[in-house]
């Protein structure tokens, strides 16, 4: 036997030994992986995990896995070995250790469509820089002095178009409201103008692709979204060039602000504006649609909201004022309870994508470095051990007082209030806490203010929220609306 033949003879057994030793070492290194099922090769359990289900539940897949394996289990999702967490403590631990033990890790397809400079996919110092820009532009002073009045204006523009006994698709109306607001907020685009409507049309196509399967073939939603992304970025770039050419120092919108006060490149600005248009439009509109849906079946909550907002409206009339101000907003205490309960039960953001950057041990389980980690926010919000009767819409659970209206089926005490608050994470947490969380709550509160003062509504056809896993109403949430008695209404004309 020649040396070459002898070498080739030895290669297979040597490789086999090395593979066995490597597997043995990994088993020794991580002896306590959580229980679970890795599913099919490559696909894993992704198809089952993403199967649509009622948005007010955690779905059969999650329920079955928690029942079999507990609140922390292993799986193979999105083509990667994954630790799934429905455990409130682990979820907080993951979010609070962002950048130290864990980092953001969204599927590559998300970065491909939102852009590599999108805040959603950035990590480290660049994410902190981008987030600081957003926080500065969404400062408390700006919310008080400028954005509140803009939110009010766009609310009135949408609700002012509703006609007596007409049927409107509440989801589409909410999207119209948030898109028009963000388009003006970001680039000073005016609602109803041809360029704004064209951008909205492209954005709808873009959004369908963001939440679709990442199949980059002709005719697919993903391919169409990539084309719309190119069109939208071209539009934003032309706006940038106009500003730079005219040397306009308009800091009232985000485009002008970043051009004057940041050192971002053109590509970074384009991705930042696109991602903020996505984040600021989509999540807020879904939350508003959910509040309309939940309130429709909870007349006690509508009654208490109406009383709260009538008191604010009467005080405005007595003082001779018309536009809402920050003091009025701070009086909307029960409204904030409704907002919190909508976000808890509806779960606009159901889970987050993270990755372990170090070997982690939690509650005796090993989380290997490089593994994907999914903190499932909705599973915590719907956990009966943390929230009393979690599948009930009960805004009174957020009040620091005993009981709720008779017949409402609400919470009966305050012992769980603190516990519930500690496990309430609709905007994430830690260093990546949503920069627009306060703006989102402001939008919801102002919209609810004018909604309950001016309209009765009910579903005109059956519909409910589904998780795909993004939340959507299959029929657009069609409602038939009627005006309230005249003495209870307030103006529905936008300020000049």
TrEMBL record:
Q: Where is this region: Disordered?
A: 397-422
Compartment list: Membrane
Please note every region of biased composition (Low complexity): 413-422
Q: Which CDD domains is this protein grouped with?
A: CYP90-like
Concerning Pfam families, the annotation shows: p450 (PF00067)
* The entry's keywords: Heme, Iron, Membrane, Metal-binding, Monooxygenase, Oxidoreductase, Transmembrane, Transmembrane helix
* Record-linked InterPro entries: Cyt_P450, Cyt_P450_CS, Cyt_P450_E_grp-IV, Cyt_P450_sf
Does the keyword field hold Oxidoreductase? yes
Q: What is this entry's stated membrane topology?
A: Single-pass membrane protein
Residue ranges spanning the membrane: these are: 6-24
The family note in this entry says: Belongs to the cytochrome P450 family.
Name of the featured protein: Cytochrome P450 90B1
């Amino acid at each position: 036997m020649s040396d070459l033949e002898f070498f080739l003879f030895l290669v297979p057994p040597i490789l086999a030994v090395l593979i066995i030793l490597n597997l043995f070492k990994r088993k020794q290194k991580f002896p306590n992986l959580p229980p679970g099922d890795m599913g099919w090769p490559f696909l894993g359990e992704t198809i089952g995990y993403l199967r649509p289900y009622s948005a007010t539940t955690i779905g059969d897949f999650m329920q079955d896995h928690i029942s079999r394996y507990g609140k922390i289990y292993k799986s193979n999702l999105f083509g990667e070995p994954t630790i799934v967490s429905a455990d409130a403590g682990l979820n907080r631990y993951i979010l609070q250790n962002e950048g130290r033990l864990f980092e953001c890790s969204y599927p590559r397809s998300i970065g491909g469509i939102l852009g590599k400079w999108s805040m959603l996919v950035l990590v480290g110092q660049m994410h902190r820089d981008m987030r600081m820009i957003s926080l500065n532009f969404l400062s408390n002073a700006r919310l008080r002095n400028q954005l509140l009045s803009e939110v009010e204006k766009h609310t009135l523009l949408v609700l002012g178009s509703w006609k007596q006994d007409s049927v409107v698709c509440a989801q589409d109306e909410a999207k119209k409201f948030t898109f028009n607001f963000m388009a003006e907020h970001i680039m000073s685009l005016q609602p109803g103008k041809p360029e704004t409507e064209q951008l909205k049309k492209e954005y709808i196509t873009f959004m369908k692709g963001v939440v679709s399967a990442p199949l980059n073939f002709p005719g697919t939603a993903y391919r169409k979204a990539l084309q719309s992304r190119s069109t939208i970025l071209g539009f934003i770039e032309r706006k940038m060039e106009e500003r730079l050419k005219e040397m306009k120092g308009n800091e009232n919108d985000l485009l002008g602000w970043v051009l004057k006060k940041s050192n971002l490149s053109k590509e970074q600005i384009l991705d930042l504006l696109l991602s903020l248009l996505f984040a600021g439009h989509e999540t807020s509109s879904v939350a508003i649609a959910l509040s309309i849906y939940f309130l429709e079946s909870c007349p006690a909550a509508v009654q208490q909201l109406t009383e709260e907002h009538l008191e604010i409206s009467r005080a405005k009339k007595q003082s001779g004022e018309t536009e809402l101000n920050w003091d009025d907003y701070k009086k909307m205490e029960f409204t904030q309870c409704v907002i919190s309960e909508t976000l808890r039960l509806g779960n606009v953001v159901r889970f987050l994508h993270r990755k372990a950057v170090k070997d982690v041990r939690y509650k005796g389980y090993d989380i290997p470095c490089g593994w994907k980690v999914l903190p499932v926010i909705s599973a915590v919000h719907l956990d009966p051990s943390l929230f009393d009767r979690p599948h009930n819409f009960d805004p009174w659970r957020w009040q620091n007082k005993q009981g709720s209206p008779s017949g409402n089926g609400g919470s009966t005490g305050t012992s769980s209030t603190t516990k519930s608050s500690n496990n309430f994470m609709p905007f994430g947490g830690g260093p990546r806490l949503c920069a627009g969380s306060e703006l989102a709550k402001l939008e919801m509160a102002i919209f609810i203010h004018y909604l309950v003062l001016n309209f009765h509504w009910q579903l005109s056809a059956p519909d409910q929220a589904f998780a795909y896993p993004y939340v959507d109403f299959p029929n657009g949430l069609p409602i038939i609306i009627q005006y309230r008695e005249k003495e209870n209404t307030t103006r529905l004309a936008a300020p000049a």
